[in-house]
Amino acid sequence: MHQVTMSPEPIRAVSVAEAADIIARVERIMVIGCSGGGKSTLAQKLASHFSLTYLSIDRDILWLPGWVERSKEEQRRRIVERIAGERWIMDGTNPSTFDIRLPRTEIVIWVRMPRLLCVWGVMTRWLKHIGRTRPEMAPGCNDKVDWQFLKFIWTFEEKFSPRVTAGIAAHGPHVPVLQVKSRRQMRALLDLLGVPA
């Protein structure tokens, strides 16, 4: 007789209310998601409200001035150094480093907005910072939007999200994950935490 085995839930999903309760009492948070969804803004608001060190993958790990990418070894070394701290919030997806980040993380906030909203987000921030560098980017890395970047955003959910899910399942199955899929959900989370708009 063939026995059917149920595979375990790939991530430990939590509700907005559960996440708010967890976020209010933890010290190490990862905020991940597609570009333009609002993860950097959310991470910076939480960092400010809870006095957490704000760590940006783009600014602190990935890029040198002028869009020069650090070596993978250097990126991993810099992550290990920074996550050794006790109180931080790290903004950036990059599943290839989940093996070192997730074991130190107490909750993941996955900003998973619709792709049209993400495209709108990158276009509006590009217009806002045209010719300048955003605070969460490395010096000399002025905002740019090209066809390749827009294609990355448009196909993120189908191509990239399965890697995110698999990475969480492999390296942080115990870590609670809040998936924020709308601006209303994000506002509800901030309201529950008492974070101003």
From TrEMBL:
Q: Which domain of life is it from?
A: Bacteria
What SUPFAM superfamilies would the database entry show?
Answer: P-loop containing nucleoside triphosphate hydrolases (SSF52540)
Q: Which PANTHER family match?
A: MODULATES DNA TOPOLOGY (PTHR37816:SF3), YALI0E33011P (PTHR37816)
Protein name, as recorded: AAA family ATPase
Q: Which organism is it from?
A: Rhizobium mesosinicum
